[in-house]
Amino acid sequence: MALPQRDGFSGRFGVLAAAAGSAVGLGNIWRFPYITGENGGGAFLLIYLFFILAIGIPVMLSEFVIGRRSQSNALGSFKKLSPGSSWWLIGLMGIIAAFVILSFYSTVSGWTLEYIFQAAASGFDGKNMEQLNTEFVAFTSGSFRPVFWQIIFMALTAVVVLAGVQKGIEKYTKILMPALLILIIIICIRSLSLPGAKAGLEFLFVPDFDKITGQSILLALGQAAFSLSIGMGALITYGSYIRKDTPLLGTAVQVATVDTLIAVLSGVMIFPALFAMGESPAGGPGLVFVTLPKIFQSMPGGYFFSIAFFILLSVAALTSTISVLEVVVAYMKEELKMSRLKATLIGGISITAIGVLCTLSFGPLKDFTIFGKTVFDLMNYMSANIFLTFGALFIVIYTGWKLGKSNFINEINEGGKVHPLIATILVFIIKFIAPIAVGAVAIGAFFIEGLM
Ligand code: TRP
Known about the structure:
The protein is mainly α. The chain has 18 helices and two strands.
């Protein structure tokens, strides 16, 4: 007789949709272009790609293995696989990271909702870059509107998480993610056809290593982890919902490919247009919100595309925020024995409370700084560069040195055999290469160049 099943994904496609939905989000479309823009372009992109391949995929696979093997949440999984040890602290760090990430992520998610309405109200028409920038600043530095949208967005996230993983997530991502990809490609074509676009392509693809510092290497690693949703247990949690007949390595490679494709295309969408308009690539967090409206203005059907784009961007953000909230909810539900409703309410409301501080740090709390950073900047910086970097480090150390080679290999061989040579290489990377590389980058950036 079959045992009662945990709530889980219905099959291969469901997992892929959910994990890709988690990975693809504001990290690709909002964060990647502006961080790349601030860190010199091409050389940064190369380092980023290296980290996706050498660190990202092995860590993602490790998370899937830990989750599916333990059938448990981000914290419970370590308790179950290594009882009586302190490894669950990795899970605790992940839960804290979920609060940190979602607090500032929900700020930007709220902005995407505002921009749907601005697009629909033809709010971008006839404005030059400077005016678009002034309006962005005016909106984000307000109090009521950005907080209002943030709360709406968190409520949407909570509703989907309440519905449960499988029903909530699979349904939407199937259609909307491919639609987003097509729209991005259309916008890329427009951006590339603007006069002067070539300089932007060169910026993105021709590396200039003089612009790289220890800090920017850390930022590339942090961005790779952030974009793939690794290092905090989101994919441990999703891994626990993956059925035994789903191949984990194949899924990890596919998710990383889709995620990287969308990040690079977002760069192709932004930089050519930006250079064509003679603007600086170091525009910071407002970059896409100012550049994209400008591109839409010069596009046939721009009105329609702008509305569709911001709707799809909100959905991409939503499929990411649910994966972060699910980490907290799965933990509270399984470890603290709360109902899904109670866990979602407590998790959602407390994260929103911190999130409001992030949102207000563009306006009323602008001058309130910690380590010279506003609350938003601090959360944004710490999430990727501290929590996810160290999270990824500890996860590979755990997988490589504690979980054991045979456990790891048995798990990745469920649902399809992995070639023994590939399995050996993966184990080698997880045991030696990844911990040394991540450790060296973190130590170099923090201790040689100073913490932030
Ligand atoms: N990867 C998402 C993005 O790029 C953000 C995200 C969702 C995330 N879940 C995560 C980041 C878990 C780190 C960990 O937008």
